[in-house]
Amino acid sequence: MTGTIVYGFNAVSEALQQPESINRIYVAKESRDRSVRPLLESAKAARVRYDFVPQAKLNELTGTKDHQGIAAAISPVDYTPLEELIAQCGERAVILAADRIQHERNLGMMIRSALGAGAAGVLVSDRGSALLDESVVRTSAGTVLRLPVCKAGNLATALRALKDHGFWIYGLSADAVDSVFTMDWPNRVVLVVGNESEGLRPGVRKVCDAFVSIPLRSGLDSLNAAVSASVALFQTTACR
User: Fold this and answer.
1) Is this prediction's pTM over 0.90?
2) I want to staple 19 with a disulfide (CB 3.0 to 4.6 A). Which of 46, 79, 126, 203 is the partner?
3) Strand boundaries in the chain, DSSP class E
C-alpha cells in the first residue's frame, strides 16, 4: 500500500501546495504531455521525490486509466517539520533516526518502540526508505499518529542541524566497541539505525559522533533492525 492516491494534473498540483504531505509522485514513463513538466519542476523545488513507472503500474495504483499520466501518494501521517520537533524537545531528549529502513513492518515497530520508550520523535530518510503509509500505521498499532515524525530529504544534513542544537549522534553498529549498556549518555541523543542489509550509509556515518553496539551471545552477529532500535531506545531513555 502507498497511502491515499490522488491523480490527474489538478489533483497533484493541489497536493503540491502542501508538499510535506506527499510521500511520492508517480509519472507514467510513456507520458508525453507537456503539463507534466511544470508539476515535476514544482516537486523538485519542494524536494518531493518522483518516480517514473510503466503506464500499467500507474493504472494499478490509481484503479483507472484516466489519470493523465501522473499520481501522488499522500501520507496518512502529518509530518512534523524538524525545526518544530527541535523546539518541542526539552533539556533531555532522545530522537530515533531511521536511515533507509525499507520494510514497512520494521519502520512501524521502530516507531511504536520509540513512543513506548519516551522518545521525542522519529526522523526518517526520504529516499530509499519505506513510505509512511497505512501499512506502517497498522504495524505501529496507530502509534505513528501520536509521535512527531520528520521526513528528511538529506538525513546527514538533518543530523547536522540536530548537532547544532546540542544533540549527540550515535550510530548503531554491530562492530562498535562501546556498548549501549555501558554508555554514559549525554542529555540530548539521536540514535541512528541503518538499512536492514547494508547498515548506515557512509555519509551518515561521517556525521555520527560515536558508534554503539548491542553485545550478543551464542554466535549471533546482529539483530533485526527494529529489535536493535528497541533495545537501544529503552536503554538510552532508562539512563536519563
Assistant:
1) no
2) 46
3) 4-7, 22-28, 50-53, 70-74, 93-98, 121-125, 149-152, 168-172, 178-179, 188-193, 210-213
Could you read off the pLDDT of 56-92 as tens digits, one per residue? 999 999 999 989 999 999 888 888 999 999 999 999 9
- Residue in the block written with cell 508539476: 39
Nearest in space to 97 (alpha carbons), one of 221, 203, 214: 203
Residues 73, 3 contacting (CB under 8 angstroms): yes
Cross-strand partners of 125: 152
CA distances from 240 to 90, 93, 120 (A): 12, 9, 13
Any idea how long the chain is?
240
Residue type, 101: I
pLDDT reported for residue 33: 82
The values of phi and psi at residue 224, to 5°, are -55, 145
